[in-house]
Amino acid sequence: MPSFAHENRILWLWQVVLTLLTLFRVPDVLAENLLNGARLGTFPKPDFRTNFTLQSNQGSGSFKEIRHGLNADPFYVRVYAKPRNGNNTAFCFNGIGSSQSSPSRSSYGGLIFAYNSEFVRIWAPSDQNGHIVFVKDGWGGEVNTQESNEAEVVVEVWKNGPAPTFQIEHVIDTRLDISSQVYHQVDHELRQLPERVVVRLSPVVTDSNNESNPNMGFWFHAIASSQNPDPNSNFGG
């Protein structure tokens, strides 16, 4: 299986779905168990859960595809790594939806995951500078640093959940150097801070020839901060 970087060398056109959950607007609509389950502190048990050992720097061996068997796009997916040794033994490091750093200049780390109605795909770094867990080189004053090439990876999938109070789809095309195409602001009209916001993306095409992307139909979670300020190296998300 090719690496994440190879499969997603250029992701220009994305379908973006923004989902907001606000529990104050819908108490009479949702069942009480769904209301409670929507809060992180009382999240129900996942419908699918598995764990396995994954290593970085193993080429295609640093990729894993898991069949969750739910036959539907999940309500929520969580993927995290737990190092078995070091300063952060048994701590959970959540995976994200895209690489935010190029391996060309320095060390980096973390898991990338995506999912569809059948599978969850997990990528660990396969470059020699990449690590499955990496907390070092300028983070937190070097307190409890961690550089691990092997960890226990846990995949949890929830099939159903509360209906969102707001949801919208939008297409972003990064081929066009126009701010209105790569930046999009949405008025959710809730007039209060949402309980939870989820932004997820699915690649549509990879180049000007509309070549099919091997991850088409898979969903990648967006994150709220870029960790790669270098304009000369690759990044995404």
TrEMBL record:
Signal sequence extent: 1-31
Name recorded for this polypeptide: Lectin
Keyword terms: Signal
Keyword Signal among record annotations: yes
Superkingdom of origin: Eukaryota
